[in-house]
Amino acid sequence: MRDEIRQQATTIIARIPEGRVTTYGAIAKMTEGATPRSIGALLRLLPEGHTLPWHRVVAAGGRLADHGGASEQRELLSAEGVMFDAHGRIPARFFWP
């Protein structure tokens, strides 16, 4: 991913308000050339100790992506007041923007 696109993506992710989520695809659409997969790769490669709210980025349809940090992500989102339905999806009222 080009540095300009990485900067755009991290700026967008940093602006996701507490208690809200957005998707990899939505972030990609707000940049000048990222893809949902490249957003996922960016988040996977964040250095330890970063402060970017990675947990606020979810898969399409409001589901948590299948990754090793999914249980931590669910805990962090729940602590911010984000709810999950009976199917594990996040209702539309929690989506940003």
TrEMBL record:
UniProt superkingdom: Bacteria
Residue stretches making up the Methylated-DNA-[protein]-cysteine S-methyltransferase DNA binding domain: 5-82
Gene Ontology BP, a term: DNA repair
SUPFAM superfamilies tied to this protein: Methylated DNA-protein cysteine methyltransferase, C-terminal domain
Gene3D superfamilies with a match to the protein in the record: Winged helix-like DNA-binding domain superfamily/Winged helix DNA-binding domain
Gene Ontology molecular function: any one: catalytic activity
Keyword line: DNA damage
The keyword DNA damage belongs to this UniProt entry's keyword annotation: yes
Family matches, as PANTHER family: 6-O-METHYLGUANINE DNA METHYLTRANSFERASE, ALKYLTRANSFERASE-LIKE PROTEIN 1
Protein name as it appears in the record: DNA base-flipping protein
Organism: Kushneria phyllosphaerae
Gene behind the chain: atl
